[in-house]
Amino acid sequence: MITIRNLTKSYDGKKNAVENINLDIESGDIFGFVGLNGAGKSTTIKCLVGILGFSEGEITVNGRSIKEDPIACKSEMAYISDNPEIYAYMRGIDFIKFILSIYKTPYDKDKVMSFARSFELDDVLGNLVSSYSHGMKQKLVLMSAFLHEPKILVLDEPFVGLDPKATHMLKSMMQEYAAKGNSIFFSTHVLEVAEKLCNKVAIIKDGRIAACGTMEEITVSSSLEDYFLEVNNE
Ligand SMILES: Nc1ncnc2c1ncn2[C@@H]1O[C@H](COP(=O)(O)OP(=O)(O)OP(=O)(O)O)[C@@H](O)[C@H]1O
Ligand SMILES: [Mg+2]
């Protein structure tokens, strides 16, 4: 579904933030992307979803180039950034309707309320986003992503700020979503969650892929955490 080939991105034209990244995300994958702060996760993700341009390499989404056909690529993906910065003056329900309209998805009240109940947002959807806590905003953006049923979900640290109940809910939703043949690519620092949830994982170190494979391959002789620490202590 997604191919990233030789992706190289520099912000200042001198130092590469990411270099020669190659990744394949296939149908049904829950693909974890892990690395230390500043390793290049968000940069890679922003290039993939068409927010950042890049100097070298190629990214395709279902065979189409993100550079040449960005709208078609974006219409198949949902992207949740590492910070739920959403319009404070909108009510939660207006934000949901806004996202659905962008993706040309009809508003289905029962479906929206069912998702809202799952995330315990049903009582506050009519309130302004400015009155939401960080976790509530995160739940709202996650809900909006699942609601328009994209084939690909790209999530930058989706578990940050979620309470244990919402974390559990999100993990179940991700599993159900991938089981239908969709793909999820997400970054995280929570290695225990990644190890349990993902079928594939890549470790990025100093802008380069240091390890990549199925979770069984990577954790054959140690936990993901131990392997991660070993790779990053080399
Ligand atoms: N807007 C920017 N302008 C200049 N340099 C940037 C910018 N964003 C990121 N960088 C640099 O690119 C490198 C990779 O950063 P990136 O945000 O991709 O890391 P990350 O793996 O997502 O880290 P974190 O775990 O802290 O979110 C870092 O050296 C960072 O300083
Ligand atoms: Mg980041």
Quick summary:
The chain has 234 residues and is an alpha/beta fold. The chain is built from 9 helices and 10 strands.
Topology:
Elements: E1 2-10, E2 16-25, E3 30-34, H1 41-48, E4 56-61, E5 64-65, H2 70-75, E6 77-80, H3 92-102, H4 109-118, H5 134-147, E7 152-156, H6 164-179, E8 183-187, H7 191-197, E9 200-205, E10 208-214, H8 215-218, H9 224-233
Parallel strand pairs: 3-8, 3-9, 6-7, 7-8
Antiparallel strand pairs: 1-2, 1-4, 4-5, 9-10
Helix pairs in contact: 3-5
The structure holds adenosine-5'-triphosphate and magnesium ion.
Magnesium ion binds next to helix 1.
Molecules bound to protein: adenosine-5'-triphosphate, magnesium ion
- What is the CATH topology assignment of the largest domain? Rossmann fold
Secondary structure: number of strands? 10
Quick one: biggest sheet? 6 strands, mixed
Number of helical elements: 9
CATH architecture group name of the largest domain: 3-Layer(aba) Sandwich
Low-confidence stretches: none
Radius of gyration, in angstroms, nearest whole number: 18 Å
The residue-averaged pLDDT reads: 96
How helix-rich are the residues, as a percent range? 25-40%
Explain how this protein is built.
This protein has two domains: 2-76 and 151-233, P-loop containing nucleotide triphosphate hydrolases (Rossmann fold, 3-Layer(aba) Sandwich), CATH 3.40.50; 85-150, no CATH class. The protein is globular and about 50 Å long. α3 runs parallel beside α5. It has helices at residues 41-48, 70-75, 92-102, 109-118, 134-147, 164-179, 191-197, 215-218, 224-233, and strands at residues 2-10, 16-25, 30-34, 56-61, 64-65, 77-80, 152-156, 183-187, 200-205, 208-214. With 234 residues, it is of the alpha/beta class. The two termini are 32 Å apart. The model has no long low-confidence stretch (mean pLDDT 96). 37% of the residues lie in helices and 25% in strands. Residues 11, 17, 35, 37-43, 82 line the site of adenosine-5'-triphosphate.
